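User: Predict the structure for this protein chain, please.
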Amino acid sequence: MPINFEDVEAIKILRSRYFRAMDMGDYDTYRSLLTEDLITDLKGANYHFQYNNREDFIEAVSSALNADMACRHLGHHPEITITSPNTAEGVWYLQDWAANVRTREVMEGTAIIRDRYRKVDGQWKIYHYEYRRVVEMVSTLPESVQITAHYLGEHGRKPAERQS
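Assistant: Here is the predicted structure, written as structure tokens:
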């Protein structure tokens, strides 16, 4: 199938919006990027998250990346393959960092993302999202490191233990 560069670029923008929306707790935008029947399979050193619908996945992400967290997610080196006029696949190299500002625990790592995309009403959306970790490191921030700003602190969901 010939490369449709408009579709490839639209999928790159889709993934970029996904990372931004996640890091900023913008779950309306986040939701708009995923199909309702989203399938996820995310495996790290001490977790394996599998969901068969968008809402359960968004609930899990918004609970994990709550107001106590500072995070960044970056996607590099996209390999996009258009498989039909309305479907595509992508491979991305994820680099992420997440710190709990209260406990000072930090997770930093990389993973290989494998996505499948579907065009819905003329817009590309993620309908299958999986990754496997390449590297995952956990450490504690030294006292000399101060997190002086983190967007989720103001805009993220309150952690479950602090909601009462």
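Helices lie at 5-24, 27-32, 54-64, 151-155.
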